[in-house]
């Protein structure tokens, strides 16, 4: 099936509460992708599926030129399974060329989507969701099966840290694209400790298990340095640093994108 001319090159972002991001990391990611599309004049190619119950009225229909569509379901919890599956179906039926699926709760629908539509699917798992203790046995079974469907049927699987990449590789024999994001938007970082500073770090004890160069433990544990690290208001150690907003770097361009 060939997408209609007016939909060619269209990209769907699925699996989030909505934009602008006010809920979590995936919402912030979707917001920053929309910002990047607007900066490149590509907003008209972007559609973002949102949760109507989790978006206060009046609900906007666009964000920076990107189209917003709403489903009457929550994007989190048990309703995330039909939310993701239905948004996948709608994106494919409306002729979108590619879909970025943030979270894989509804990936059980991927075999059907792949059998009927040519839409390219990029899946970004949200950690190892089925291992979280908040889920019961049935939910864990569904989430684990959904993870397997995403790993096997998505065109591309994205992992945002080495642990998730290793899990996907070891469990499903699939090499994900590893994209660590968020650090490049840090507002500030503490400077390295100064060797001339009157505030000294506490002394590290060297035991054989931690330091192979030590052949035997000392007869008595060494005393830590009496002077503790400074926690003054002028020290970056004593201040809470602003949290970095996550964003994503696209390493493989989707069809129809610049």
TrEMBL record:
Compositionally biased intervals (Low complexity): 228-240
Region Disordered, residue ranges: 184-258
One Pfam family of this chain: DUF1972
Residue ranges of every copy of the DUF1972 domain listed in the record: 121-183
Bias (Pro residues): 189-201, 218-227
Superkingdom of source: Bacteria
Protein name per UniProt: DUF1972 domain-containing protein
Species of origin: Roseicyclus marinus
């Amino acid at each position: 099936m060939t997408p209609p001319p007016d939909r060619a090159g269209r990209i769907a972002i699925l699996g989030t509460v909505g934009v602008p991001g006010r809920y979590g990391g995936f919402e912030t990611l979707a917001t920053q992708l929309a910002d990047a599309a607007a900066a490149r004049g590509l907003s008209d190619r972007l559609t973002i599926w949102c949760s109507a119950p989790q978006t206060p009225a009046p609900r906007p229909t666009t964000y920076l030129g990107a189209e917003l569509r709403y489903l009457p379901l929550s994007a989190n919890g048990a309703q995330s399974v039909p939310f993701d599956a239905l948004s996948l179906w709608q994106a494919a039926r409306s002729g979108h060329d590619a879909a970025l699926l943030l979270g894989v709760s509804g990936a059980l629908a991927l075999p059907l989507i792949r059998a009927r539509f040519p839409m390219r699917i990029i899946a970004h798992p949200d950690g190892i969701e089925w291992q979280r203790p908040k889920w019961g046995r049935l939910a864990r079974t569904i989430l684990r099966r959904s993870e397997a469907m995403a790993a096997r049927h998505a065109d591309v699987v994205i992992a945002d840290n080495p642990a998730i990449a290793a899990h996907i590789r070891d469990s499903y024999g699939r090499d994900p694209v590893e994209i660590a994001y968020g650090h490049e938007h840090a507002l500030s970082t503490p400077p390295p400790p100064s060797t001339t500073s009157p505030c000294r770090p506490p002394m590290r004890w060297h035991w054989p298990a931690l330091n192979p160069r030590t052949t035997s433990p000392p007869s008595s544990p060494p005393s830590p340095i009496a002077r503790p690290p400074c926690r003054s208001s002028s020290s970056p150690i004593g201040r809470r640093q602003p949290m970095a907003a996550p964003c994503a770097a696209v390493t493989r361009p989707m069809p129809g994108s610049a």
